[in-house]
Design brief:
mainly alpha
């Protein structure tokens, strides 16, 4: 049975110059998983920002020793964190991008100081980040090994 994307007439063979067919790299699973995690995290930070903004006028939320934050401060912090998450979602795929994505998990966890439920959400996203790095890397390695071992069945042979 042939792959649905494969040409029906023949199995890819050597190119016109007699060289083995070149296997084009698939989009990295690690890149897709980590990028998606950071974008979803940015959406959650948006909702957390809405929550803190709505709670700024509730006196029982803020301790007497702490003045409630202003709306401008809330939106500035929330917007900066959202922009950083979205920018990093495009920067992953490089060594420094993955490191920065790991470091940005800390400020997301720190939002739990203002909205305690964000500790739980931050831990969930940190776990998703770790799983994205490990599982995505494993999928990429297994894909590469399979494509190298079975070049005739690789759907992306040119």
């Amino acid at each position: 049975m042939s792959h649905p994307n494969a040409a029906a007439s023949s199995v890819p063979g050597p190119g016109a110059d007699g060289a083995a067919p070149r296997i084009r790299a698939k989009k990295s699973a690690k890149l897709q998983f980590t990028s998606t995690t950071l974008v979803l995290e940015a959406v959650v930070v948006l909702f957390a920002t809405f929550t803190v903004y709505a709670l700024r006028t509730v006196p029982s939320v803020w301790p007497d020793a702490v003045a409630p934050p202003t709306g401008a401060a809330i939106w500035t912090v929330g917007a900066v964190l959202m922009v950083v998450l979205v920018v990093l979602s495009r920067a992953v795929g490089t060594g420094p991008g993955y490191v920065a994505g790991s470091v940005v998990q800390l400020p997301v966890l720190a939002t739990g100081l203002v909205v305690p439920l964000m500790f739980v959400v931050g831990v969930v996203f940190a776990a998703m980040w770790i799983v994205s790095l490990r599982l995505g890397g494993r999928i990429d390695r297994e894909r590469a090994a399979y494509d190298a071992a079975h070049p005739e069945t690789a759907p992306n042979v040119s």
